[in-house]
Specification:
Elements: H1 4-31, H2 36-45, E1 55-60, E2 67-71, H3 82-92, E3 101-102, H4 112-121, E4 126-134, E5 137-146, H5 154-185, H6 187-202, E6 204-217, E7 221-224, E8 229-234, E9 241-242, E10 247-251, H7 254-280, H8 285-313, E11 316-318, E12 323-326, E13 337-338, E14 343-348, E15 353-360, E16 373-377, E17 385-392, E18 397-398, E19 404-412, E20 424-435, H9 436-452
Antiparallel strand pairs: 1-2, 1-5, 3-4, 4-5, 6-15, 6-20, 7-14, 8-10, 8-13, 9-12, 10-11, 12-14, 15-19, 16-17, 16-20, 17-19, 18-19
Helix pairs in contact: 1-5, 3-4, 7-8
């Protein structure tokens, strides 16, 4: 006899597992539903897989008037239909709408007559009310009907309560979006926005723009190639401090030195011919006639020799003054042919720097040159420096990010700070005083007009 209850429990276990599996599957499906109307349809119709009922109605409740959002088996519901009005009247009249209960006359305040009409509509109607909560707030309710005298059991009410709690979690995302939408539609929201806009019109602030900047030498010495040829080697390193007359780079000497030897030999040959003609000219008239020609030829060869000697003297390039070497990669110059005037490197002094920045084409506003430029370097964002705007180009060029920009320069104020050449950051420039409203909407306004053409 003692084993019989165990056998009954064992037989009941598969049914319980099947019920929990169905509830879990329905809960996951509800939570993954991203459309409000699809979730309403699921809750009203698929719940019948767990608990049997003949009709279900779902109401939205809370801060807004009660509204019928759906009826099981129907895709659309008219809120003006008589049956919908009766449902809303009874739902609004429930004494305790926050608890799961079978609705009777004792559950209502004043809508007993309407409730009688609903009961008479289908013989033996039993109505179960189940509230829907989201974040502890009542946001809706379910109206489950059974007809033909079928009553709601306590165990079924517990199952409905458990399932509706899961529906509340799925409904939460729609409650938030609906609250935001209601707030946007509220008159006080637009009044507040209008008041804020009016206040922004009267608050004056300086118009400011930000531009990428870089620390560059102020008076750099550009060392260029003094003659056409091939660079053999750059003997200095980037950032190296060099004194005046220090060797910077050297040319390949083979061709220039060979040209120098040829020029020297040509001068010797021409001079010998001139001496021979001068000696023979004392007796030979023909030799005397060649003296003028050879004299001019000797002058030409001497000029060529002087040029070759000059080239030979330029094969080693020295520093014209002391400074730090600004150079990207010395190895890239090895064996590279260059032309006269081509830049090879720069010599700069650390105490002579300035700021160069690239003002985007859309930010070339009317700037106030009396207001200092604020410079913030990337390596030290906690510090800021001030500089005087001295130059803005009249034409655009592409910066390193291929953005059309106006190149501008500024000199440091209060002495040159201890910053390295090549550091980058942001320069903040100030224009005329404008309303805070214009300050905020200037760029979005410009973008809208640029894309729409209005």
């Amino acid at each position: 006899m003692a084993e019989q209850p165990q056998s009954g429990a064992a037989k009941a276990s598969p049914e319980i597992v099947k019920l929990l599996t169905a509830i879990n599957r329905l809960t996951i499906k509800a939570i993954n539903t991203n459309e409000k109307q699809s979730l309403v349809f699921l809750m009203l119709n698929d719940t019948a897989q767990i608990v049997r009922y003949d009709r279900a109605v779902f109401f939205s409740m809370g801060k807004q008037p009660t509204k019928v959002l759906g009826v099981s088996g129907q895709t659309k519901v008219s809120k003006w239909a008589d049956l919908s009005k009766k449902w809303r009247a009874v739902a609004d009249d429930i004494k305790d709408p926050r608890s799961v209960q079978v609705i009777t006359h004792d559950s209502l305040n004043r809508s007993g007559n309407i409730f009688n009409e609903l009961e008479q509509g289908q013989s033996g109607t039993s109505i179960l009310w189940a509230p829907l909560f989201s974040g502890g707030e009542l946001v809706g309710g379910f109206w489950f009907e059974r007809w033909s005298g079928n009553k709601w059991q306590q165990q079924e009410q517990e199952i409905i309560k458990f399932l509706v709690d899961a529906y509340g979690a799925a409904w939460k995302k729609f409650v938030t979006s609906a609250a935001i939408w209601r707030m946007l539609k509220a008159k006080w929201t637009w009044y507040s926005v209008l008041l804020i806009l009016l206040l922004l019109m009267f608050v004056r602030v300086p118009l400011r723009v930000a531009a990428p900047c870089e620390v560059v030498p102020h008076h750099p010495i550009v060392v260029t190639a003094p003659l056409d040829g091939i660079i053999e080697e750059v003997v200095v390193e980037p950032g190296q401090f060099v004194k005046e007359a220090t060797t910077l780079f050297e040319y390949d000497k083979r061709v220039p030195m060979q040209e120098l030897k040829v020029a020297q030999k040509q001068v010797e040959i021409t001079r010998s011919e001139l001496n021979r003609s001068t000696t023979l000219g004392l007796e030979d008239p023909r030799s005397r006639a060649e003296i003028a020609v050879l004299t001019l030829r000797l002058q030409r060869e001497e000029i060529r020799l002087a040029l070759a000697q000059y080239h030979a003297g330029q094969l080693t390039v020295i520093a014209p003054q002391e400074g730090y070497v600004v150079l990207d990669d010395p190895d890239q110059w090895r064996g590279k042919p260059v032309q006269v005037g081509e830049r090879v490197l720069i010599l700069s002094h650390p105490e002579q720097t300035k700021i160069r920045f690239w003002l985007p084409e859309g930010d070339n506003i009317s700037l106030d040159k009396e207001k200092p430029v604020k410079v913030v370097l990337n390596v030290a964002p906690e510090k800021s420096y001030r500089a005087n705007l001295v130059y803005i180009a009249n034409y655009t060029s592409l910066d390193e990010k291929q953005v059309p920009s106006f190149v501008a320069e500024a000199n440091w104020m209060n002495g040159v700070p201890d910053v390295k050449t090549g550091l980058k950051g942001t320069a903040v420039l100030y224009g005329d005083n404008v309303s805070l409203f214009y300050f905020i909407v200037r760029k979005p306004w410009s973008s809208i007009r640029r894309w729409t053409g209005i």
